[in-house]
Amino acid sequence: MTLPVALPWAFAGTAVLAVLVWPLSIRWHDVSIVDIAWAWMVTVPAFVVAATITVTGPRALAILALATAWALRLSLYIAARRRGQPEDRRYQAIRARNEPNFARKSLYLVFGLQAVLAWIVALPLMAAVASAAPWRALDVAGLALFAFGVVYESVADAQLARFTADPAQRGKVMDRGLWRYSRHPNYFGECCIWWGAWLVAVAAGAWWSVLSPLLMTVLLLKISGVGLLERDIGGRRPGYADYVRRTPAFVPGRPRP
Fold first, then answer.
1. How far is CA 69 from the centre of its chain?
2. Is the pLDDT assigned to residue 30 strictly greater than 80?
3. Contact present, 22 and 115 (Cβ < 8 Å)
4. What is the pLDDT of residue 241?
5. Which of 50, 22, 26 has the alpha carbon at shortest distance from 34?
6. What secondary structure letter does DSSP report for 236?
7. Same domain for 256 and 137?
8. 232 and 169, same structural domain?
9. pLDDT given for residue 194 in this prediction
10. How far is it, in rounded angstroms, from Cα 111 to Cα 103?
11. What is the C-alpha separation between 34 and 56, in angstroms, rounded?
């Protein structure tokens, strides 16, 4: 089986995962659990391709290992952060706009949409797994950027988790560690992951998979990441306006006086 033939099966894999998680959101009255499943919804298509194509490429094992490490770390982190919390306010707003019968509508409004986005994001992973192109220097650069992104995002999340767990820091702004150089270092790390995956895909001859990092960059900057968080955080944290004035929003840089 070739990659074009395997792509629909890969989408089926992530769609099945979304459908399996959906009943849990109804039982718990919380569609936020889609965020916990998201990383695996992205990773499953790559494994489906690896299982269905005739021969995997030379970079398949490396990209699958990194993708698995990313998915495991991110899903566990989000699950720990969400434990005991009510439904995320983003999904509460979606629920309010789509009542009555949001439980049924969420199958396509939330879980179906996430499955489509996850499949698109997974394009570089699938292309890297399927390509038989020889190993290139660009593979090393891409894998290094991918690994850097995983580590950078992990460190940023760990620093934030320690900060928010300290009762003395309640209501204050996290401006230490990596957060001193960027207001959203975790999102920057995530962005590096997908541009790194794309470099590996380019080495595999799949430049067309650029749709994945472009989509992730737009999501992180404009839709579900930086733009959404900064829309009202200033009202919840009085010191945030000053933090904005002296700290780059996304790409790390030297803090301004």
1. 13
2. yes
3. no
4. 83
5. 22
6. H
7. yes
8. yes
9. 98
10. 11
11. 30
